[in-house]
Structures are given as C-alpha cells and as structure tokens.
Amino acid sequence: MSLSPAISTEMSDSTVRRYLSLPYRIALTRDGADEDTPWRAEVEELPGCAVTGATPAEAAERVPSALAEWVAAALAEGRDIPEPRNARSYSGKLLLRMPLTLHAELAQAAEREQVSLNGYINGQLAAAIGWRRAPLAVPSQDQAAADNQSRGRLYLWALAINLLVVGFAALVALFVLLNAL
C-alpha cells in the first residue's frame, strides 16, 4: 500500500515543521573569507546546514529556511535526521589528567585570585571559548583621562548648583525672619 503524493507531501511538511520547532544549537561565527556575507550561522547537529549573511541577525534569520531545506532533503533521501543535543545529558563533571607542573601553576594562580581551583579552571576555560560573557573592556588611558575630566566637571556643576540652592534658602530664611519681626 503506497501513499498518494499529496498525503506523502503533507506528512513530509508536518515532519519538517516538527524539526523546525526543536531546539537545535546554532553556531554564529564571523568568517572573513567573504566580504559581502562575513557572518556564518550553522546548525551544529546537522552537518552542512549553514547559511551566511551580511550581519549576525541576517545570518540567523536564514537558519529556519536552511534547516527546512536540509530536513526535507534528508527525508527525500531516506537519511537519518539527528535530534538536537540536550544540555541535560551532560553531567558537568570531567576527570582531567594534566602534568604536575601545570597543576601547580593553576593552583598558584587560583590562590592569587582567591578562588577555588575548580572555579579558576572553569573561568579560564569559559574565557578561552568566549562562553557566557564577553570579556570586560579595559578603557584606554586617553578614555580614562576623558572620563575623569568629565566626572570633575560634573562635580563642579553639582557644587555650584548646591551653593546656589543653599544661598537661595538662606535668602528666603532671612526674608522670613525679617518679616516676622
């Protein structure tokens, strides 16, 4: 018993929509090879499912159509379609062997930072792959000097306004006192 082309297409569309609703991981990277579309968005679990764009947003916007095409082609060819990786499938534990000298240097660095060795290594690994947070921007000396100069001007204005308010209050108090006599 074979399905009619309309029913087969409907089932295929429904399957594609189901895969579009799954939480696939998207890797967004800047690729300098193409000046017009330097941003690349790739579905990590689907090999070859990638798109490019002039901006990160443009590349990300193109992902659903690329994913739909990839899934439809895989269905037509009878290939397996990987499910998204589930972050809960990772325990968060890792046994790592390292040279004694590296262990000693890491432990000393953690002591200097006043954090646990585990916390220090986690921070270093996260920074190495750019995970979670962008590194804090360190202002240049020129920027720091300009910020200090702006802050100094702000303090002077605040002092001048404060003196005017106190002077006005003193005049009002003097006026009230003289009228009370």
**What's the domain count?**
3
Can you give the helix content as a percent range?
55-70%
Overall pLDDT level: 81
What is the CATH top level name of the largest domain? Answer: Alpha Beta
Proper CATH architecture of the largest domain: 2-Layer Sandwich
Oligomeric state of shown chains = single chain
Question: What is the molecular shape?
Answer: elongated
First-residue to last-residue Cα separation: 111 Å
Structural class: mainly alpha
Strand order of the largest sheet: 1-2-3
* Beta-strand proportion: 5-15%
| Helix and strand run | HEEEHHHHH
How many strands appear in the DSSP assignment?
3
Number of H- or I-type helical stretches: 6
The biggest beta sheet reads: 3 strands, antiparallel
Fold topology:
Elements: H1 5-20, E1 26-30, E2 39-43, E3 50-53, H2 56-61, H3 63-77, H4 100-113, H5 117-129, H6 141-180
Antiparallel strand pairs: 1-2, 2-3
Helix pairs in contact: 1-3, 4-5
Keywords:
6 helices; 3 domains; elongated; disordered N terminus; single chain; mainly alpha
Structure explained in plain terms:
With 181 residues, this protein is mainly alpha-helical. It folds into three domains: 5-86, Double Stranded RNA Binding Domain, CATH 3.30.160.250; 94-129, no CATH class; 140-181. Helix content is 57%, strand content 8%. It has six helices and three strands. The protein has helices at 5-20, 56-61, 63-77, 100-113, 117-129, 141-180, and strands at residues 26-30, 39-43, 50-53. The protein has a three-stranded antiparallel β-sheet. α1 (5-20) crosses α3 (63-77) and α4 (100-113) packs across α5 (117-129). It is elongated.
